[in-house]
UniProtKB/TrEMBL annotation:
PROSITE patterns: 4FE4S_FER_1, 4FE4S_FER_2. PANTHER family: EPOXYQUEUOSINE REDUCTASE. [4Fe-4S] cluster 1 binds at residues 191, 194, 197, 251. GO terms for cellular component: cytoplasm. It comes from Arenimonas oryziterrae DSM 21050 = YC6267. It is an enzyme of class 1 (oxidoreductase). Pfam families: Fer4_16 (PF13484), QueG_DUF1730 (PF08331). The gene is queG. The keyword Oxidoreductase applies. [4Fe-4S] cluster 2 binds at residues 201, 217, 244, 247. Gene3D superfamilies: 3.30.70.20. Monomer. TRNA binds at residue 226. This is Epoxyqueuosine reductase. It catalyses: epoxyqueuosine(34) in tRNA + AH2 = queuosine(34) in tRNA + A + H2O.
Amino acid sequence: MPNLPALAEDIKRWGRELGFQQVGITGIELAPDEGHLQDWLEQGQHGEMDYMARHGDKRSRPAELQPGTLRVVSVRMDYGTGEDEEAWRTLAQGERAYVARYALGRDYHKVMRNRLQKLSDRIADAIGPFGYRVFVDSAPVLERALARNAGLGWIGKNACVINRNAGSWFFLGEIFIDLPVPVDTPASAHCGTCTRCIDICPTQAIIAPNRIDARRCISYLTIELKGSIPEEFRAAIGNRIFGCDDCQLICPWNKFATRFDEPDFRARNDLDRATLVELFAWTETEFLQRTEGSAIRRTGYEGWLRNIAVALGNAPRSAEVLSALESRREDASEIVREHVAWALAHSTQKD
């Protein structure tokens, strides 16, 4: 058996050398979080995300998901570059498209999975074969609870993991291991009485501290939902065409956070400055080419056009905007046609 305390420190050091900003280790007890998840599911607040209810209790019981698991190595990788003011400016300019900051660059799944695999290989090189499994949103894992227990940050009122020094602009990943290495101290909460994230949510999706009704959340509506966006939320979506960052942009812990600029996550295809009209003109071939290796692929081309149609309906009315909408009035997709018709009617009502 290797020197376990020394190995725990080595794992953290190797992780930092591979480009993770923080590495922590936790046990596998998640009973309180299991209860929170079950109540959320029973209330139907996961919407159409049926995958959240699959796999029984494996999501909150790591050893059932990966037999033999004794510890979880939790890592964070920053993606925010500190350009919050530019994000606010984009949201204020209705003719521009707002894409959630995490989706502007390369798909984080591949970036993090490759580095987690390298970390696993490094452990094996040091101690020999061991049981492990790497996760990056690839299976039912309560990653935020594990990150909190590993000391990476607390779960804020907006349900994001928040770190006192790094804010919340980061991705999470895990390695389930069968090694009984020492664990880290869980992070304590520091939101206090602040409710800025709850107050600013455009659709009031944060219905209680750390309780998101996904059916109201713009990230869910523009990414996970595959059908029609409920009309009651369309105006509030504004120019957000893929995800929403308002609850992070307003968070005081992000204002003075120290951030690391990861080149893989820098904006591609000018998505941080593109106009709605420009993006609405993409053909399906262009969409597939320009979103290759991007998280935006998740919404699909139909969802992409649906979202932009809504944003165009909310944009300042102009000949260019109306022309763009008219160009897809007879689109092959019934979903797109429906949202274009709404956008044209909504734009007219603003006269």
